[in-house]
Each structure stands twice: as C-alpha cells, then as structure tokens.
Amino acid sequence: MNGFLRNLLIGTVYFGLGQLGLSLAAASTNIAPIWPASGFAFAAILLWNLSCLPYIVLADLALSVTTGPFAASDVLTALANALSAVAGVVLLQRFKSPGSIHERSWNMVLLLLCGTVVTAGLASSMSVLGLVRGGQVAQAEALPVWWTWFLSDAAGVVLLTPLLVVWQEKGLAGLRPWRPESLLLLTGLLLAGWVMFGQRQLEIVEHYPVAFVLAPVLVWAGFRLDLRILTLAILAFSVQAVAGTTMSLGPFGHLGLPESYLLLQVFLMVMASMVFILSSVNAQSHLAELSLRQSQAALRYANERLEQRVLERTKELRQALKELRRAERSYRALYENAIQGMFRSSLDGRIKTANPAFAHMLGYASPEDLLRESGMESVYVFPEDRREWLASIRQQGFLRNYELRLRRKDGTPLWVLGNVLLTQGDDGEEVLEGIEIDVTEKALAEQELERERQRLEEDLRAAGEIQKRLLPRDGAELPGAAMAWTFVPSGQVGGDAFNFIPLADGRTAFYMLDVSGHGVPSALVAFSACQALQDAGGMQGGSPAGRLGIMPRPVEVMRRLEAEFPFSRFGQFFTLCYMVLDARQGLLTWSCAGHPPPLLLRPGQTPALLDGSGPAVGLGHAEGFREDQVALEPGDRLLLYTDGVTEYRAADGELFGEERLLAVLAGAAGLTREQALALVTERLGEFGQGRKPSDDVSMLLVEYLGPEGVGGKAGT
User: Phi/psi of residue 172, each to 5°?
Assistant: First the structure.
C-alpha cells in the first residue's frame, strides 16, 4: 500500500473511532467514557511516522464539523490532539531501550506513561485552555472538564495503543489462540464481564467493589496468555464494561455521571496497565531465560571444546616432546658426525664445546684434548686477524663466509671458511657459535692458479709483443706509394696481422690476414704465416729465394700457404688478402682468401669493392683461389681491413656493416690518409657508444702516387 492510501485509511479510521467515542457520550452531559481516537493517533504516529499527521488533523476537524457548529477552538483542539501525540512519540523514542516494546518492561511502562501523561495530558490541557479562552467553558468548571477529558483520552491510549503496537511488532507469527488454557481464560474473562457489567439484579455487584476480584485472574492471564490475545481480551472486556456502565449496570453504573465514568476509566486503566506491564515483564523474563539457556548451552559447548582441545593439546605436546627428543638425538648425531667443524667459544677465545671434526681439523685427537688448551689465540698465524673479525662481529652480530689462515697443533698451515654468530649462552654470557670448513686444498689450488694466471699474463704479454712485430715499421719508405694504418686491439691476443714486403724486382706486396680464434695459438699461427709471406718475397736473410719460391704471383702464394698451413696440422685457418703493386706500370694484382675484399677509393668516384675472394687458407680448397688485376691512377687509394671493422656491434647487436664503412669513406675523400682512418675509427666508436670491440680492428690504407712518386713513409 502506498503512502497516500495508507494515510487516507488512517484518517478514516481516526474519524470512525471519533464517531464511536461520540456515540458513547451521554446525551445530557456530552461526556464519553473512552476516546479511542487518541490511542489510535498515538499508535499511528509511532508506527507509521509523521506523514499521517495532516490526515489526523483533518479527521479531527471533520468530527468537529459533524457534531455541531464549527468554532475556532475546534482548530486548536485538533492541533492539540495531533501535536500532543507527536510529543509523546518523540519522548518515547528518545528514552526507550533497544528492542521491541512488548519484550521490554521499561518500554511498555514508557509507552503507557508517554501515552497517558504526555499525550492525553497535553491534549486535554491545551483543549480545555482553548475552550476557556473561547468562553465555551467557565473557568470554575475547567478542572472537572479537564479530568473528564484527560481520563477519556488516557483510557483510549491504554486500551488501544498497546493492541496496535503489539500486533504490528509480532504479526501472526507463532500465534496459537486455540490452546485450552487460552480458551479457558478468555471464556472466564468474558463471563466475568457479563456477570459484573451485564446484570442489574445482583446487589452485591452494585454495592461492593467486586470488580477488583478479577485482578488475580488478569495477573494469571498476563503471565500465561500471548500479549496479542491478551490485548484483544482486555479490549473485549473493556467493551463489556463500557457498555454496561453506560446502561447504568455493573458496580459503577448506579453512581450516576460523571462518577460512574471516572471510576470505570480508572478501573480499566489500572487493570489494563497492570496486565500489559506484567505480560512485558513475563516476555522479558522469557527472553532472559532463553538467553541464559543459550549462554549455558554455549558455555557447555565451549567447555566440551576446551576439554577436547586440552586432550588434543596434551596429545600434541606429547608428540612434540617425542619429536623433540628424536630431533635432539638427530642433532647430536649430526653434531658428532658432521664433517664441518662446529664450536662454541667465549669472546676471550676459550673453547666451550666442539665436535670431533673441529678437533681433528686443528690436529687434536678428540674434542676433550682441544678443550684442555688454553684458548684459540695460538692457532692464528696472524693473531690480529681474530681481533679484526671479533670487532666486526660485535658490530653486526655475525660474520659470513670469512676466510682465515690458521695453524694446526703440529704447525702445518690450515685455511678455513667460517660462519660465526654472536649469541647468548644458557648462563646469559655472550658466546660465539660457528661452523668452520677446511678449505686448505682449495686455498693451495687458488695459489697455484694465481701463479698460473701470472704465467699466462706473461705469455700474453709476450704474444702481444709478437703481434706488434707483425705490424708495419714506422718510417719505412715505399716506391711510388704511401700508406697509413690503424690497429685497435680487442683486449685479447688475436690473429690479426698486416704489413708490406718490398719485392726483389722493385714491386711492393701488401697483405692483411686474420687467423681464426684468439689467444696465443692464433698469434703464433699469424707470426708463422707472416714469416712465410716474408720468405715468399725473397727477403728472408737477404736471399732472393724463400720457402715459397721467388716472387710468386698472388694466387701462387695462396696455394703454397694452403699447403704449408693445413687445418689438420694447426687446428686453425686464416683469411688473407695479398696484393702486389707495380708502381712503374700502375698495375695492381691481388688475391683474397676468405677475407673482406679491398676497397678502391678513386677521387671523384664512389668507393668500390675489388671482388675476387676465394676460400680461407687451411680448409683444403686450393683450387678455389683466383687472381685479379686493376690499373691504378695517381691518387687512388686502397683500403685493406679485417672483419673486426664491419662486424663491430652496437649495444643492440646491430653490425656496423659495409654500407656504413663505404659511406664514411665517401665522406673522407678530401682528408689525408691518417685523417681518413681516424674518421672511420671515430664513427665506429660513436656507433658502438664506446663499447670495446669483440675482435681486433685492423685497417691499412695505401695511396698510389704514380711512377715518379716519392716514396711515402708508413704511419699509424
């Protein structure tokens, strides 16, 4: 139901209850024994909020219009009735305890007090004051009128408000009206009401207050009946009492007005309030008893769980003790049989405990023999070592993987690798606990390795000197040509070598070779190959004849080197570019064996590759070598280089490549030979962002000066 329809229904019910109250009023005095509309208004605002307030005011005004001429005091009365109900509700909600009203005795008492004292008291006071000021009631009659009005409103609140509140809170859940006890109480209560308030001829009823004999029955009903049924029973009994009294029946009817109504109102309010409060006390006690039973059940359950947990914990502790003893035996066996030395000592060096491995490590027959020693100072080759690591362990509490040189009992050297922890012993004294590993063999091996490393460095230095001898000598003059060269080692001894050879017939041979791999073997093969090339040029010992013959052609040089340096003999191969320059005729003859082809740099033209490469020397493919020629013009330049130039890598792995090399050389046409090579080296460094090359970078730049050219000097 939406809010408008609900509020309209509330206003309609209020109007109907007001008409019912008016119908009960005596015609001569206009006094009503009960005003149910006041109880309904109080309950409506409590249960359905203030939105119904305007409808209650309108219904009250409608009652005033239907009962006689409308006056300004009727508006004040309607507002007083509504606002007094609001005041009672506000006080009730402010001071009530958490929970429902029917299950808290304080809430029920507060409901009755706020409904009677606050709501009924304010409504009657404000209404009577309005009537007095309007001249409708004389000031001398104000108090009797107020009592009549107050008791009528209060009776309506006591009889109707608990009924509506209880039924709204509980609904129909768990309702059992047909229990024999309930039926018996209801029947007895209604029968007593008929006897007391429905008979004229019973003199004892008219002249004695026998109505209060019902108090024990009502008390019994308050403790035994459901409050919902009890509110309906009280209402039904009250209807009998009001009806009988208005017909001048019962113990109050013969007294006349207004005494009969006053006594009836007090009787009904006292009985109903008593029963409702007792029922709330009973409900609260039932809740407390239920909560107590639940708490007792929870306590029993918790106690059972605690006992079970104690048993389980006892079992766990026994098992843990068993495991602890087993672990202790295992630890003792591990401690006694460990191959690492374990010890505990005081800070001044006194050994407190040690395992057999530690005693044997220091040359003692048993831990007992070691413990009889005065301390650890005597085992240090350098006593200051212990003072240094003791200061460190005091600062940080432990030492890890420290290495010390000690001496055994017989004086032989001992190197140990240890881990030591600073902790507290059972007596609170600071102690050192450590594990030592005998690394004497490792230390001796490292010493031998260091000696081998030094010998290897000496060999590498010697190999480096050998490699330098394979480079051109400074100041050498060449007929009809000049050259410049650069060599950037990779940091390892490699197999790069290049040089020139003045031949016996006035020609000049140039070569560049690159032996596979690095290190001393590659350097030795390079040295041998260079020596063979020198012999081929007829310069060995000043004799025009060498092992490879007299002034052979380049292709013949390749074939004879192939026979001299087979891979099966040296386990290595090498690439070679060998060219012969005839300065008088300006003719260049060359052959390449797996080597990057030389570059021809002709002024005004794009650098060109002099192709003609064959297989590398040493792989057994002598038939694949070839020879080519080209005519040179004065100013032409030839660049020989190793793959360390084109295969120089950047940080992302990209190669420098031939295209970049050609582009740099094209931009170096106007530079000197040395400047051109320096530019290539600079571009390599920029490309690799200063990374060290992984292979030797070798470049030889030869410039043809012409038949009449003055011999230029070699330079780096």
Answer: -100, 5
Range with the poorest average pLDDT among 15-19, 71-75, 391-395? 71-75
Write out the two tokens for 40.
């309904």
Alpha helices in 171-258 (DSSP H): 180-197, 203-207, 214-224, 227-246, 250-253
Tokens found for residue 690: 């200063």
Residue with tokens 């039904």: 236
The H-or-E segment that residue 702 falls in is: strand 697-704
Helical segments of 432-545, H only: 440-469, 520-536
Strand (E) or helix (H) holding 470: none
Range scoring the smallest mean pLDDT among 194-208, 253-267, 418-432, 512-526: 194-208
pTM over 0.85: no
H-run or E-run covering 140? none
| Long-range contacts of 426-433, Cβ-Cβ distance < 8 Å, separation of 24 or more | 429/346, 430/346, 430/347, 431/344, 431/345, 431/346, 431/347, 431/352, 432/344, 432/345, 432/346, 432/347, 432/393, 433/343, 433/344
With the CA atoms of 376, 382, 385 and 387 taken in that order, what torsion angle do they form, in degrees rounded to the nearest 10? 60
487: nearest Cα among 194, 180, 209, 716: 716
Contact (Cβ atoms closer than 8 angstroms) between residue 255 and residue 314: no
DSSP-based three-state secondary structure for 638: strand
Q: Which residue has the higher pLDDT, 658 or 214?
A: 658
Distance from C-alpha of 38 to C-alpha of 46, rounded to nearest angstrom = 12
Cis peptide before 98, with omega less than 30 degrees from 0? Answer: no
C-beta separation of 357 from 339 below 8 A: yes
Amino acid (1-letter code) at residue 297? A
State the Cα–Cα distance between residues 268 and 263, nearest whole angstrom: 9
Hunting for tokens 């009401």 — which residue is that?
Answer: 193
Q: Among 103, 127, 100, 121, which Cα is nearest to 46's?
A: 100
- 429 phi and psi angles, rounded to 5 deg: -75, 140
